[in-house]
Every structure is written in structure tokens, then in C-alpha cells.
Specification:
Spk1; guanine-nucleotide releasing factor; DOCK_C_lobe_C; Methane Monooxygenase Hydroxylase, Chain G, domain 1; DOCKER_Lobe_A; single chain; Leucine-rich Repeat Variant; alpha+beta
Length: 685
Amino acid sequence: MKIKNERNLLTEILNLSFFMLKVNNSYFVINSLIKILTFCLNKFGRQIFKEENNLLSELCTLIFPKILFHNKNTRNLTNNFLFLLIFKNFQYNNNLSNIEIQLSIAFDQLVGDLNRNYEKGELIYFKNFFSTIKKLTLDYNFFQTNKKNMIQKKKHQAKKKLIFEKKVINLLNHLLKIFLDLLKVYDYRFDTQTHADLLLRIANNYSNNPNIRFHWLNKLKKLMEHEKNYGEAAIILIHQSAMISEYLSIKYPNKKYLPKKGAKSFKKINKSVLDEKFFISLTKNDNNNNNNNNNNNNNNNNNNNNNEDDDYNDFDGYDDNDNYDNQGNEKSINLKLIDQKNFSEKSLEECLENSIEMFRLGGYFELSCEVYEILLQIHKYRRNYISMSQYFNNLKKSYDILIKELFDYPRSFGHYYRIGFFGKTFKENNGKEFIYKFPEEVLIFDLKPKFEEMFKNRIEKEDLHFIDTNTAKNFTFDPEKSYILLTTVNPYFTEKESINRISTFEKNNKVNKFFFEEFYTLSGTKSEAVDDCCRKKTILTTEYYFPYMNSRVKVINKEIIDLSPIQVAIDGLTSKITQFEIEFNKFETRVKSLQGMLMGTLLTQVNVGPLEYANVFLSNTDKYDKKEIEILKKTFLSFLDTIKRAIDLHSYKIGSNQIELQEELESSFKKFQKKIHYYIKIDKN
């Protein structure tokens, strides 16, 4: 009865206090409310921190903004109250997980006020919050000394204090990072990609706190949805699904219908999900801790009867075999602190189903089918045949679309551009290069007005310059001006990879290398002579694979390959062979496509390229490297075999109305083959 009455009293006090805090009041009223809430923390701590409710969230949301209040006394009371909130949370839960996520959300709400820009004085108030919490943590003597047991408990007290200090300092460091990043986040609202990168950086700062990481990934997902970057939103949901699966695979190892490999189960969908394997070290630690806790609880039950004044009461639930080392560092993520609302089977299903819808909207039907396989496994175990029936219907629709693509025009996954930023006005992005993915309708000449509009309030139009790859070679950058480098790039694959990547989906999925080419001549003048034409191929490697959680990814490596004239010839022939191989590997070879490739290779008016390579390089082999000549000859022989195979396939596919074209192709091939064999034969003699 007493507990029930206390709970009712607390509810009435808090409801009234929360209502008063939500409306404008004088500093006198606000100060009084903070003092009342301080009393509640000391009197009803167990109800606030141990029971399942939203009281901690409400307290952080309503009190935290008062750190910027115009009255100094109110600010001091607020900082002291927030310290007490942190301490009490640790006292009752032996961790700061809940308070950390609530304070990070409160920071987000306060810094993210779109209607204000923070003044210098207010930034000082933020700084005062950090310094006050740190000072109180280090100076405040909150551990009561029991003289009777002082010697026995001194070691434990020291460790408890060290753990608390360490965790508060870590908390403040994380919050400071979030605060600085949030200032940038809302400073870059005009730039979606940088905005997204900063949100992702905040999420990555919490790789050791799944609850908070999940929250910030949610914010990033909403941004991607708002920008209609549906493929990227789907990848975020897959990351969240991987986090949940990683947790569930450890928490419930006997539930075989769940993704048994945790985050690895999603590697086929996206390689970057392996970043979510932060639960990997938990199994042994958690099991060992549970066993130790059981033993300690039995021992404590026998000993605590004679120790009513035991100073363990200062930290309810404190265990000497907890999750910290002697320096107060966290050994691993405590499974008990995981938010069951987000990390549950229900949440996993919701994330997977939402990712399917996002993949569908983004045109990634193949990936949606992979997700269905995971869901079907879960519902098959539950004998949920209604859901399974719906899933199979949706799968059929997706595969019907993919079948239609085999005979019609392929989907478009947009265009890729290398975009570099140079100039101090770009701040975060200065000196960095990125690969951007834009929708199909955005061409390279659309980018200039797009970026001019984006930076119109930051950079004077006459100070913003756009340059291309050729201009950038010998360009002198003015440090007072801003430059944006624009280059069209395409996904890069090795010869072996190209043969296996047939569909447009395969050419745009799990891609982290891109290239562009520049042509030049040995003579330095304009020339079309094949023995004078060189090519420079630049290969850019991105930090993550596309599609990723943002529509741009930073370039982390650049490789330049210079091709001599004979190497250009070899590369040209190899590319043609690869194009034919891709056509051969298709489920249904398109006759028109095959005809176009054969006509472009064999018919007299357009077959100058390969024959010219033979005329120049194979008729005078002494001028060139022997190894390269041998490679060129082998490439020509492979080229002939490939064309012969294509002609045979063409004869099988065409109707009676195209026999004349087939005969013309066969005749042209014989002439072409004879000339190539002539050059190779001369060289052998």
C-alpha cells in the first residue's frame, strides 16, 4: 500500500511539474520546479529509474533546455539537477546507458531548433554544462564511509568511484562530440549529403552503444526517405536488422529460425553490415558474468544479514564482478542494457519489411527478394501461412519485373560523378573528393546550377568556380576562392568481374571502384594515328560499397594507369571480347544487340579499328616490346574465336528474313580472319 501511495504521489507531482515546465514561467517558478524535481529524485529514485516508464525521457527533454536560460541561478540549478540525474541513474542501474541516450536526444532537440542561431553567450552556457558536470563528478563526495567496515570496503569504494568517474567522463566526451557534430549537422541543412555524413558520424561514434546508434540511424533513414534516396534508406534498415540479428543470435542461440549468423546473414545484401558485429565478444563474457552473479548473489544472501549498514547500498545492484576492469573501462556491451523495444523479433520483422518497400521504390528488386528469404524462414517456423502467401505473391511480382527486363530496356540506377571540393569555405569537405550517385535525369551539366543554388548563401557567385579534369591539371588555385571539380565516372570492374556482372543491377550493386579516362598523344598534337594515341585511366576506390547509407561516399584511393598505344589496342580488343561475353551470358540474348556488335566489328565501313591495330603493330613488330606483341597476338586470336561464336549464335537466333545479313557477316568475318592470320603468320616466319 505504501509503495502504491508513493507512486500515486510521484505521478501527481510530476504531472503538475511537467505541465508547468511546458509553458512560459518566471525564473522563480522554474527554480522552484527544479527544486521539487530534485526532491523527487532523492525520494522516489527507484520509481523513476528502476520501473519501466518515460519519466527519465520527460525529465531530460524538459529540464535540459534550461541550461540556456537567461537567469544564472536557473542555469546553475539545472546543471546540478542534471548531475544528480546522472548520478542517480548510475546508483540504481550501475550504468549510464539510459541517461546517455536521453541526453543525446535532448541535445539533438535543443541544437536542432531550426528557428534560431546560437549566440556566443549561449555556446558558453553549453560549455558551462560540460565543465560543471565534470567538476561535480570529480569533487563531490557522494560515497558514505562506514568506519566499522572501512578497511574491508575501501577497495570496493575506490573502484566504484573510479567506474563512475570514468563513465561520466566518457559520457561527456560522447556528448561533446555529438554537440559539435550537431552544430555542423544543422549548419549543413542546405547540403543533404554532408548533413547525412555527419549524422552517420554521430551514429558511428556510438558503435559500442547499440541503443543510441539505432536512434541516430533512424534519423539518417528519415533524411534519406525525405530525399527519395530509397535504396540508401533500405541499406540503413538492413544495418539496423543486422544489429538486431546480432543481438538475438546471442540472446536466443536456440531460435534457429532467426538469422543464425547475426550480421553475417546480411552480407549477401550489403557488405558494410559487418560493421554491426559489435556484439561479437559478448557470448563468453555475458555467460561468465551471469554465472559469477549467481554465485555472488548466493554468497551475499549469506553475508548481508549481518551488514545492514553495508555501503554497497550506495549503488543498488553493484557487483564486484561487473562489466568493468580495474581502470573503470567497459569490457563489453552489457546485453541487459539493450532496449527490448528496438532489439526484438517484432522490431526485426518491421525493419526487414520496411527495407523491402524501400528496395522496391529504389528499383533494387533483387535485394528485396533476398530479404524475403529471411522473412520466409521466420514465418515458416511459426506456420504463419497467411504472411508467407503474401510474401510469395510479392516475390512473383518482383520476379515478373526482372523477367520483363530481360526482353525490354533495363532499369537505370542513375549516374555517378566524381566531385571534389577545394577552398576553405567548404570547411568539412575542403580537399576531399567523393563519388556521388544522382538519379538518371541529373546529367553533368545540371550539377553546376544545382551546386550554385546550394551554396548561394555561403559563397559569392563570382567566387565559386567549376572545373573539369583537364582544367584541373595545370590549374592554380586561389586560396580565397572556392572550386568544385566535376567528372563523370563509371563503375570499374576487372575483366573477370565484367563477365559475371551482366545485368544493370549487377553493374550497380556492391560497387566501390569507379574510373574515368583521358586521351592524349605522344606527339602532343591532335592525332588519330593509333601508334600516337595514349590513354590514362584513373581508378577511384571509395570507402564503402554502393549502395550505402548515403548517396555519396568518400574517395580513399586513386590509381592512375597509363596505357601506351599498343596497350590501348590490347585494352580495346579486350573490351570488345568482354562485351560479347556479357551478351553470351545473358539469360536471353537480344538479337538486335548482337547484330549491332557484329556489324560494328565486321562490316567494312566500321571495322577500321581492329584492322588498323594489326596493320600498325603486327606489321612492324621490332618497334615494340616483344611481350606486348605476344599479348596482342593472343588477344587477336581470342577476339577471332569470340566473333566466330557470336556469328554462330546469331545464325541460331535469326529468322528467315535475316539470312542475307547472316551471309554478309560470315563473308566479312572470313576476310577479317584472313587479314589477321596473315599478320600473325608473317611475324612467325
